[in-house]
Each structure stands twice: as structure tokens, then as C-alpha cells.
Amino acid sequence: MSEERVNSENCCPRFDPAPWDEKTLQWKDKPFIKSSIPLFFHIPLPSKIKKTMGEMWKKTKDSGADPGMKDFIAMAYDPSPWKSEYYMAVTKEVPGAANVKLSGTFMTKVFDGPYSAVPRWIKEMDRYVASNGKTSKKYYFYYTTCPKCAKKYGHNYVVAFSEVA
Q1: Is position 30 within any domain?
Q2: 41-61 pLDDT tens trace
Q3: Which of 12, 96, 105, 106 can pair with 145 through a Cys bridge, CB separation 3.0 to 4.6 Å?
């Protein structure tokens, strides 16, 4: 990510929501690496996120599996209030990482706001998915910038991915 810095004060590139909003993606064995962190009622400790994402990114870069910022995706899925799973898109298997492949149909919608709005976003996502004749099975959230850059840019864009049936 460092070579993609917008300037010395922003570590995350400015996010363009247009390519992600209200899209349907078909994935067949899309490669990711996976890691997890503990939560407290769905609230992660910022230091755990930073450490985990940093370790995942380093493994991705060191193995040459970096997809580039155009295709970068790092999604979070909370299977319980006590655990979050992170999925980082890669271009090939990454040694020393938990390599997984995701397949299925995923509908996306972009939101802008605080993490606390996730329950409202899930309801809105369900309405969007239903309006397309589908049902949500599982939700992933792609937080597109760190809190510092979100504040600097004036937007905290989050892409919701709904795996649909």
C-alpha cells in the first residue's frame, strides 16, 4: 500500500464508490487470505485490526500476491459478537497464510457513515437484495479507508457485500 499513498498525510487512496455501488459480482474460487480477531459485542480493538491487516498485507506483498489497489478488497465478516474474520483478496496462494477461495453471487452497495450504522445498513441491503428477487445469506463489509483517512477525506465509505441465493 505504501507506494499507493496519496501523499505523506494520507495512507489510504481516495475511494471512488461508483464502481462498487449496486453491482452484482460472480466469483468462482476467488482467492483470499483469511485471519481473525477477537471482538467485544462486534466491536474490535483498533490495535488488533491494525496488527492483523498489517500482517496480512505484508504476507501478500512478500509473496507477490498483491492485486494492486484497483482490485484490492479487504472484507470483514462477524460470525459472532466475539469474533471477526478478515478476508484480503490476493492473486495467488500466499505461503504461511490461511488461503481460502470464495464462490457465489455477491451483491454490493456502498454506504457512508460510522461503524455503528452496520445494523441499519444490513436492513437497507436486505431491501435492495429483495428488490432484485434475491435473499441474503451472509454479509461482508469492506471498510475502504482507515479512520484517519476517512476523517481527512470527509467520507467513511463502506462496501457491503451480500452473498445471495
Answers
A1: yes
A2: 888 877 788 899 899 999 999
A3: 12
A 10 A CB-CB count for 100 gives 14
Query: Into how many domains does the chain fold?
Result: 1
Residue 5 lies in a domain: no
C-alpha atoms less than 13 angstroms from C-alpha of 77 in its C-beta half-sphere: 15
Segment 141-162 shows an average pLDDT of 93
According to DSSP, the residues that pair with 44 across neighbouring strands are 39
Angle formed at CA 32 by CA 143 and CA 154, multiple of 5 degrees: 15
State how far the Cα of 69 lies from the Cα of 90, in Å rounded to an integer. 11
Compute the average pLDDT of residues 58-83: 92
Q: What is the CATH number of the domain that holds 98?
A: 3.20.80.10
Provide the residue range defining the domain that includes 157: 21-164
pTM beyond 0.70, yes or no: yes
